[in-house]
Amino acid sequence: MENAGLKGETEKNYKQVADFIKKHKLEDKVSIKEDSRGVIIEMQEKILFDSGKSELKKSSLEVINKICELLKQFPNEIIVEGHTDNIPINKGYFRSNWELSADRAVKVVRYMSEVNGLNPKQFKAVGCGEFSPIADNNSPEGRQKNRRVNILIVSTEKENKDNGSKKE
Predict the structure, then answer these.
(1) Is 4 a residue whose pLDDT tops 60?
(2) pLDDT by residue (tens digit) across 136-160?
(3) pTM value?
(4) In contact, 33 and 42? CB cutoff 8 Å
(5) Domain residues of the chain, as ranges?
(6) Who's near 141: CB < 8 A, 6+ residues apart?
(7) Choosing a second label site near 124 at 20 to 30 A (CA), which of 4, 54, 108, 168?
(8) How far apart are CA 122 and CA 71, in angstroms?
């Protein structure tokens, strides 16, 4: 999945993130992965939000503040992705899971920039809705895994490599 040009920076960033997560005892709050785009810090919905809501839980702020400490070490572009399960929202403010996921991503980005002083030019907020599941939506456990926010630290080699073909 990864090419040789991307591997070096991604591996270095992954190690830096993994060391930080371990040092700050966040292993039970977040997980980390890498893919062809860079390093992903994954946070489950239940840590950040109440079901069907987009206001950050007060109990999540300490974790987000720690993640901000980590992100300050990276000059890279950071993409915050909101994800949901496939159960339709039938009531409340949001008309769809897409809107819920987008608002969650925006709330995380705003908190990181407005409260923690991270550079807003470094961030993008993306609502993925139910369309990028990591587990089967046919079980409660699978749906829970799909309800998450990913913080992607984009590898700069990937950005430069794709610059000519990137769709804006």
Answers:
(1) no
(2) 999 999 999 999 999 999 998 744 4
(3) 0.89
(4) yes
(5) 4-25+37-161
(6) 135
(7) 4
(8) 10
